[in-house]
Amino acid sequence: MRSAIHDLLPPGIRRSLSKFGVDLARARRKRRLTVEMMAERVGVAKSTYARIEKGDPAVAMGAYAMVLFVLGFGEALGDLVDARRDEHGLLLDDERLPQRVRMSMGSSWTMNGCRSGCGSGNPPPPYETNDPGLFGR
């Protein structure tokens, strides 16, 4: 039975998926792997793997991800929509930045980040994060 996704996909996306399948087939052949070997390593039926190489949009994304992993491209999937490379998203972030930032009434923050009367006079510890996306721009 044909999935409704076939009818809903824009032509450009269908072409991209088809090219993706051709690229996966080429990568498999370069590594001298058969369709049977790939299907076994990916954990899908031979017919499902053949659909992957055709760029079938109805095949689960996890199966495509496993093919990328088996071929040695596992990390590429995580970088597809990386926030640091999302130029359109970065532009939207910049557009949403406020023109000016005002203190709310009743707030009396000092330059060192403490409310007045914090006591120590030492600056607060630096902001720490494990997310390189926050400051990696």
What proportion of the residues form beta strands (DSSP E)? under 5%
Estimate percent helicity: 40-55%
Q: Averaging pLDDT over every residue, what do you get?
A: 82
Instruction: Give the biggest beta sheet.
Output: none
Protein described:
This protein starts with a helix and ends with a helix. It is built from eight helices and no strands. The model has no long low-confidence stretch (mean pLDDT 82). The protein is mostly helical.
Question: In terms of topology, how is this protein built?
Answer:
Blueprint: H1 5-8, H2 11-30, H3 35-42, H4 46-53, H5 61-71, H6 74-78, H7 87-96, H8 132-135
Any key phrases for this structure?
137 residues, mainly alpha, 8 helices, elongated
Short description:
The protein is mainly α and 137 residues long. It has helices spanning 5-8, 11-30, 35-42, 46-53, 61-71, 74-78, 87-96, 132-135. Helix 3 (35-42) crosses helix 4.
